[in-house]
User: Which sequence fits this backbone?
């Protein structure tokens, strides 16, 4: 077998398929969309804004009318007292306040507040969280600083540690099984479509009748291995792009969950054992599937028959 | 000089059907050799064995004295079942095919552009294959076969699907290649196209070679002594010529002399009669007529 020719075929197959719309959409569109959804969710839930609420991150102040006298004289940013409900409502309508929070006289019994906003969209989770913070602050201000109150509301970040078979191997339990499963799926979704491209490629070569021209320059094995290598590299490119996107996404996420933390850790410091296992299992899995697909591709006279 | 192509006692069967039946021939360097016969005669199977795409059941095929797969890079091949990647850009595809034949990328690119210009496709270099007409695609495939400057060119049905202009272009190219000292082996079922090209032919029918040899020799061998005579102003032939048959078409007389009468005798009679001769030539049989006669000889009464 001529290795140079195998590489030529691999290079050509890679270059042809890497420019296909379907591949570009799957490689960049899918993770970009996921990233976008994550950002939207994050923004909508307002976690980032809530985290910096005490330094006045909201664009406009939130007016407060405290009829229950539950709050201190000085409010933490971005809260400010409005003279009364009417003036507070006017301020909201005129855009001077982002919202008006009225704490009714029976607040301590009823535990209800009234929030005035100009649009239901304005009263998003950011304001809801802000109000939650304000009321907790009202009750805890004598014992904690605003930052501590915020942390109390936010709750602890729980790190789940799965115990290993021995104290020495304890670190192996940390979210690792989930990472393995996630990586398996990642490789499955990236490499197995590549094997599908192989079926498509062989079938199209038969259908377009270029096969005989190719076979006048190559042996069937050189052609097959070139395709397997080229399309395998294509799958790995997809995995690399997805991992890059995943890393970017994880950096934006609050890694409170053990699984996300484990993935994040794995991306920063890949586990050698996992990598060795991947280097053996993934190519073998891809190879067997790819060869099977090439076989199917060669059976039919055209793409439809082969599929 | 050793033969460029050598086929000895080749047999190829498909599920018990014998497509090629003990075929043998050799092709000398620098000649145009035509493998002729109707569809299904066994031409393509023979060529596929030569290209190492099929393996023979019996006999052997050799290129430049070597096994076919060892001589791949010395052969330019235009298959009968041909096509190109539809979505590929023409220049990129040619470069790829050139590199598969052992050229460097730079050399393949340079040769691709040269051949595209030679085949009047230079302005289509950046087009995708599916944007080209059928004739253009055929020419592009010929360019792909010649890109690496091979000493042997094998063209399976090169005229198939071509319009008259493209047929002339391909014929000119084949003669040009022969004049450069390259060997061309072509197959065709359109015998008329090959008449002016081939130095040597092998006529194949039902998997067997029924006749082979230099085209001139075969023509003389099968010539019946027919003559084409044209006299000035379309004048009629003198009445006392020793002819079996005479037929006039567009002012030219096609005549069959009586048995034992040779052309020189007819010419002398014409001169003696004072005829003003504009044309006088021996009419050789066409390849088609030779083929039919050869088949009749090999398979009398159509038996197999």
Assistant:
């Amino acid at each position: 077998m001529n290795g140079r020719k195998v590489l030529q075929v691999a290079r050509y197959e890679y270059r042809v398929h890497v420019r296909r719309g379907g591949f570009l959409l799957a490689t960049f569109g899918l993770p970009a969309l996921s990233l976008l959804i994550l950002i939207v969710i994050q923004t909508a839930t307002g976690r980032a804004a809530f985290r910096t609420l005490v330094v006045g991150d909201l664009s406009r102040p939130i007016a407060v009318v405290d009829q229950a006298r539950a709050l201190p004289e000085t409010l933490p940013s971005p809260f400010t007292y409005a003279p009364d409900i009417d003036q507070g409502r006017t301020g909201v309508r005129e855009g001077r306040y982002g919202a008006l929070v009225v704490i009714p006289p029976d607040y301590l019994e009823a535990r209800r507040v009234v929030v005035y906003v100009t649009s239901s969209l304005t009263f998003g989770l950011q304001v809801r969280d802000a109000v939650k913070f304000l009321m907790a602050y009202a009750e805890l201000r004598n014992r904690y600083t605003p930052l501590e109150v915020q942390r109390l509301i936010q709750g602890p970040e729980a790190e789940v540690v799965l115990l290993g078979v021995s104290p020495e191997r304890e670190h192996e339990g940390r979210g690792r099984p989930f990472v393995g499963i996630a990586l398996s799926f990642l490789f499955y979704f990236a490499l197995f479509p590549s094997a599908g491209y192989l079926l498509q490629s062989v079938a199209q070569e038969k259908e377009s009748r270029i096969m005989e021209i190719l076979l006048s320059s190559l042996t069937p094995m050189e052609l097959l291995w070139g395709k397997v290598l080229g399309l395998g590299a294509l799958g790995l490119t997809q995995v690399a792009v997805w991992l890059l996107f995943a890393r970017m996404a994880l950096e934006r996420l609050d890694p409170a969950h053990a699984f996300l933390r484990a993935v994040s850790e794995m991306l920063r410091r890949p586990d050698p054992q996992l990598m060795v296992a991947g280097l053996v299992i993934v190519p073998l899995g891809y190879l067997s599937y790819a060869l099977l697909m090439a076989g199917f591709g060669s059976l039919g006279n055209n793409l439809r028959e082969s599929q | 000089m050793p033969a460029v192509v050598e086929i000895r006692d080749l047999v190829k069967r498909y599920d018990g059907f014998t497509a090629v039946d003990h075929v043998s021939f050799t092709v000398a360097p620098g000649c145009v050799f035509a493998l002729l016969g109707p569809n299904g005669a066994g031409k393509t199977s023979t060529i596929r064995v030569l290209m190492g795409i099929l393996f023979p059941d019996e006999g052997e095929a050799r290129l430049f004295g070597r096994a076919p797969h060892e001589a791949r890079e010395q052969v330019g091949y235009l298959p009968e079942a041909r096509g190109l990647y539809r979505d590929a850009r023409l220049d990129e595809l040619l470069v790829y095919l050139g590199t598969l034949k052992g050229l460097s990328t730079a050399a393949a690119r340079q040769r691709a552009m040269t051949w595209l210009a030679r085949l009047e496709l230079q302005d289509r270099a950046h087009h995708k294959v599916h944007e080209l007409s059928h004739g253009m695609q055929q020419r592009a495939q010929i360019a792909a076969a010649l890109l690496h400057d091979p000493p042997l060119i094998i063209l399976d049905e090169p005229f198939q699907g071509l319009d008259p202009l493209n047929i002339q272009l391909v014929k000119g190219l084949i003669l040009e290649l022969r004049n450069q000292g390259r060997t061309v082996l072509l197959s065709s079922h359109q015998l008329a196209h090959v008449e002016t090209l081939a130095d040597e032919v092998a006529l194949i029918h039902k998997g067997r070679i029924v006749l082979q040899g230099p085209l001139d020799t075969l023509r003389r061998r099968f010539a019946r002594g027919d003559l084409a005579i044209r006299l000035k102003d379309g004048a009629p032939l003198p009445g006392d010529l020793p002819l079996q048959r005479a037929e006039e078409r567009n002012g030219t007389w096609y005549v069959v002399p009586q048995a034992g009468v040779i052309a020189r005798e007819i010419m002398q009679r014409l001169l003696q009669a004072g005829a003003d001769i504009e044309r006088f030539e021996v009419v050789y049989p066409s390849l088609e007529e030779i083929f039919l006669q050869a088949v009749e000889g090999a398979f009398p009464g159509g038996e197999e």
